[in-house]
Amino acid sequence: xxxxxxxxxxxxxxxPSEAPDGAADARMWNRLTALHAHVEGRLATVLxxxxxxxxxxxxxxGLLAEAPRSELRMQELATGLGxxxxxxxxxxxxxxxxxxxxxxxxPDDKRGVYTVLTDxxxxxxxxxxxxxxxxxxxxxxxAAVGAPELAPxxxxxxxxxx
Length: 162
Description:
- The protein is 63% helix and 8% strand.
- It has helices at residues 22-51, 55-66, 74-81, 85-97, 119-146, 151-161; strands at 71-73, 101-105, 113-117.
- A hairpin with a 7-residue loop joins strand 2 (101-105) and strand 3.
């Protein structure tokens, strides 16, 4: 069975029904992106209402809380959040204005800038974490009920990571 370079080879023992189906993959991907958008929207709303944090702000605080010495270079934060440098600069400015972080120069490279988590930022993240986790679980459970075809996928993902 010939494949294009962008399609994985289904293997010599694959039957036609096991071979990759581009249309089915597109439908599956559309469902996953819709699920992602639904969950992200739910999380963003609840974090803003209950804790005054945007979703990217919450995630930045989490990355900083897990980092050695609770600090990351701006580029590391950008990579961890999947944001560009300009967006991270604005995000860090908001976190700094709220006294959740401060900026510090790298002692080895004066051009390097670190974002450092403050005690207030660590406290805000810890307070918001239970809300985030509760809302995430609720949104995924709701999605599994509303779209039963996603239930096996969600179950498998939870089992693989949990």
